[in-house]
Amino acid sequence: MEEIQSQSDLYRSSSSSASSPTSRVPSSHFFYVRKPGSLRQPISFEDSPEWEDTPDVDSRMEDEAGNGGDSINDATATPISPSLSKMNSGSMASPPPVPEGGSAVVRKIAGASIAWKDLTVTMKGKRKYSDKVVKSSNGYAFPGTMTVIMGPAKSGKSTLLRALAGRLPPSAKMYGEVFVNGSKSHMPYGSYGFVERETQLIGSLTVREFLYYSALLQLPGFLFQKRSVVEDAIQAMSLSDYANKLIGGHCYMKGLRSGERRRVSIARELVMRPHILFIDEPLYHLDSVSALLMMVTLKKLASMGCTLVFTIYQSSTEVFGLFDRICLLSNGNTLFFGETLACLQHFSNAGFPCPIMQSPSDHFLRAINTDFDRIIAMCKNWQDDNGDFSAVNMDTAVAIRTLEATYKSSADADSVEAMISKLTEREGTQLKSKGKAGAATRVAVLTWRSLLVMSREWKYYWLRLILYMILTLSIGTLYSGLGHSLSSVATRVAAVFVFVSFASLLGIAGIPSLLKEIKIYRSEASNQHSGAFVFLVGQFLGSIPFLFLMSISSSLVFYFMVGLRDDFSLLMYFVLNFFMCLLVNEGLMLSIACIWRDVYWSTLTLISVHLLMMLAAGHFRIRNALPKPVWTYPFAYISFHTYSIEGLLENEYLGEVFAVGEVRSISGYEAIRGNYQISPDKNSKWRNMLVLLAMAFGYRLLVYVLLRFGLNKNVSGRSLLSHKKSNTSR
């Protein structure tokens, strides 16, 4: 403590330009001001844009209490942070009145209070549950307010947010208690929303279409009801001007910017009208203007009654003034929890007053981010010549210990504990599930959405169709005019092999689109909007028309240019066989994409697998002559090229007769036997068709297992009820 005190004295003497917030400038020029008598209002900035005034929390709670309130509503009427009582005792200038507004009326949202007590999260490392990411955190959030979790990188912000939402990964373990409306019960489906830092959107849909399909996936009920909630979400996130614009753009038209995309991802969760909304880094990759617009929009959303809890790394002064409460973390330790204005006073009490004309968030992170120590050390020579590099001369580790010790011994920490006790002394209204759309409904929605997306996105199947036609025309011109003589059998076998093998290899061009579908699935499955089964069925049904179009167009061109047997039934079998081949290839690509989830490794793996299957298909060496280990078992039997080519050749040559001289003739089976191994049974081609159909479903069954027990294990969150059990086991 002597070292901390000496460092604090050193800092106070060295930062003469900085003083406490209450004395450094007159109250009329104070940066952060509130309306007199409304201490629970968000702090405003004098020069910031005007936003809609938020109803006072106390008045909201009194209204709710009149409708059957409980102790949770009563608890919110407790006195405010002790650090604020001194600062608000003097006269402060009030911000100008906000004009009445012009904006569309949006329905109110019934928020819910959330509180956490002694919350500790450990991540499984080299030793079992050794690394504490969050350490004994306490805090709460009320309806109609914005609570921000702030701190430098790797301080535990996202982990704390996920712990509150019940979405920790399996490698994490949580201790402590989380209360929702005063009870430890879990948050059911639809009662809360969670927005990831990076959300996958569908660029070929408009904003309204994207939200409408999301509503169909999430909500039960009638279509007109879902349209109304979509329009409410669009209004709430200020997306009316972009409602009919494609998210990703089209041709020469630009898509939505990062700020609008971020608001669309939040609007998708608002479709369920959640009581609590968790957002991980809402200002991620946004410029200052987009960030301010985002926070003003979220402030408007909070004024509707929703409880907002989100993480943030850094903010401008205007954005900082919109926060109601702040939870400041560093290395998992809570350095402060309370109202934003009280945080400035807390830093001043600890010996780190915010300098004039400096953003508070910049000042906070400068004091608690250990990365600044390395920057100071690198710039030491430059400091000696040009003065101090920063107003904070204290070592960051000492500053963190000072702030933590000051907070633990302050009245702010005591008031937080008192508030949590009042919030949890009696259970309030438990949140109820809002119901889900049925499995059949979700399959129909995903199928129709896939058809719409695939028809608009040229990289999905239209590009592959063009490539298939170019390949087929090339093969057709190369092998045209073969005739039907016995001498053309070997060349005809080669033509069928090249057509099937190269067309399957060319299908790898669809890997990027399949990876995008998997990312969309993971984004929707993380919030229980979709499932592995409905995703696979919807993707399968949506791809059938395009795969059949590719198969019939390519087959017709190849069939007539090469000059195969002129029989309609044989032509239809050729088309159906190649269609099954494309279905199997699509399933193989989907399974490889699920395993790697990377374009480079998926493409490399598929090329290698296709080459091995082509070598074992029986063209370069008849299957009877292949080495038994490896090539016959398993490659020759798992190669779908083998069954497709064998079925096509049986379709072409079984029942055909070739003349040898003027007297003797041989069957098609005898003619092809020296070039490719086929079965003399006329029903063999249908057995090969059934094998292809079984392989198509088998690969998709593998994808289901990977999604259900592999990917879903990582993206599915744990409920608060499971956290309660882990706390009990402790």
Overview of the structural elements:
InterPro entries: AAA+_ATPase, ABC2_TM, ABC_transporter-like_ATP-bd, P-loop_NTPase, Plant_ABCG. It is a multi-pass membrane protein. Residues 1-101 are annotated as: Disordered. Keywords: ATP-binding, Membrane, Nucleotide-binding, Transmembrane, Transmembrane helix, Transport. The chain has three domains: 114-191 and 274-381 and 394-425, P-loop containing nucleotide triphosphate hydrolases (Rossmann fold, 3-Layer(aba) Sandwich); 208-271, no CATH class; 439-709, no CATH class. It is 51% helix and 11% strand. The protein is built from 28 helices and 15 strands. The strands form five sheets. The chain has a six-stranded mixed beta sheet, sandwiched between helices. A three-stranded antiparallel beta sheet has the order 4-3-6, with helices on both faces. α9 links the parallel β8 (276-279) and β9. The longest helix has 32 residues, at 684-715. The radius of gyration is 33 Å and the shape is elongated. It starts with a helix and ends with a helix. Mean pLDDT is 81; it is low at 10-79, 85-104 and 712-730.
Counting helices, strands and paired strands, the structural category is alpha/beta
Instruction: Categorize the overall geometry.
Output: elongated
Low-pLDDT parts are 10-79, 85-104, 712-730
The main β sheet shows up as: 6 strands, mixed
Termini distance? Answer: 33 Å
**Mind telling me the C-alpha Rg?**
33 Å
pLDDT averaged over residues: 81
Report strand %: 5-15%
Tally of structural domains: 3
Strand sequence of the main sheet, in spatial order?
Answer: 7-8-9-5-10-11
> What is the helix content?
40-55%
Using DSSP, what is the number of strands? 15
